[in-house]
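Priority: low. Protein: Regulatory protein RecX. Input follows.
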Amino acid sequence: MNAKAPGDSTPREDALRLLARREYSRAELVSRLSAKAHGVDAIAECLDALAEQGLQSDERFAESFLRSRIMRGQGPLKIRQALSQRGIERELIRTVFAQAQGDEQGGEQGGADWFTLACEILARRFSGPGDTPRERARRERFLAGRGFDFDQVRYALSHAWDDPSSQD
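Result:
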């Protein structure tokens, strides 16, 4: 018989199994494949081949990750940190964010208007701006915890409950 033992898979087989479910960054794949006791050289060779074939791409991963986190209502600071933790280089993060901004300005859906997103998230969570400083601080902490910067938080606190029909 030609049966393989559970630990006899190649780095490529394991990587493809992972990539079949979702996009992974190269650093995530290195970590996962190392945990399966594959050699460092074999992993590097495998991931180079997968990238060359277009089966693994840090850029595609970063774009997908950014879109999914925007849909979850997360702000730019939190998303940047999460991408960095997943081994995405600073320059690629900058590029992906710039593309998202360009998509928004081009009128396409899915663009990143962080100020509008902060307003939507805040209005969804709270019925109003809060009557006391303590309530307003709670709303500020909520948005800051979601990864929005100071300007976005201030804007959202001022505009989250505006009547959309009165805006141009």
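The first helix runs from residue 11 to 21. The two ends are 72 Å apart (CA to CA).
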